[in-house]
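Quick one, T. Sequence first:
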Amino acid sequence: MKERNTFLFETKTGKPQNPRYIRKIITQWGKRALLKNISPHTLRHSFATNKIAQTGKIKAFSQYLGHSSSSVTLDMYTHQELSTTELFC
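Structure tokens:
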């Protein structure tokens, strides 16, 4: 049996969907469901932020995301808040 590629967003014939169409659909559903502007990048950012927070495996996830280094991932996807004490001590 021939193995078929599967895509997250595909046409009825199994081919990858046009990226502009995907962006349009995600934006429409974001506005309907959340009353916010949502983009594919928003979904990527949310997924990455949550997975890094859950696992703490920054280097492995950096490679998964295709970043050139772990520092890129740290800068973009970790959100650490510092207390006043931590800032000034």
